[in-house]
Amino acid sequence: MHKKYINTINTNENNAFICEHCGSVVTATLNGTSNRNHCPHCLRSCHADICIGDRRSWCRGIMDPIGIWVKSNNEWALIHRCRKCGILRTNRIAGDDNEELLFALAAVPLTSMPFPANHILGEKINAKK
Q: What is the pTM of this model?
């Protein structure tokens, strides 16, 4: 096995890093996750893992937040898509994540309806009268 590969297996890191998207310094804090790899300011991530926490991916592309997943325990997770390879990953939100961006991301499906919701709601409201 390649030496660089061995050094990154199951490291369970929570180190400080500089966000490649917005340039913010992200410090290692008590933020609710042991494998921090997304920026709390812009919610972008780095395609760092093959399996959660292993830091073995060679891609290292920027992962854009494309949605919110509400897990069965009502915990929120970000859905990321890699700009380089297109892989989808989920990532638990952290306590210091930008709440305005999280809510804006969660609202995208409601503000981008694939059908005329106002027309349908209007008909249902008028039908009850």
A: 0.72
For the segment 119-128, what is each residue's pLDDT rounded down to a tens digit? 665 555 454 4
Q: What is the rounded CA–CA span in Å between residue 125 and residue 129? A: 7
Cβ-based burial of 106 (10 A; exposed 0-12, middle 13-18, buried ≥19): middle
Q: Which two tokens stand for residue 107?
A: 């609202």
How many other C-beta atoms are found inside a 10 Å radius of the C-beta of residue 63?
Answer: 28
Tokens of 116: 């005329």
pLDDT of 9 reads 39
What gap in Å lies between CA 89 and CA 17, rounded to an integer? 20
AA identity, residue 20: E
pLDDT score for 11: 47
Nearest to residue 48, comparing CAs of 32, 34, 37? 37
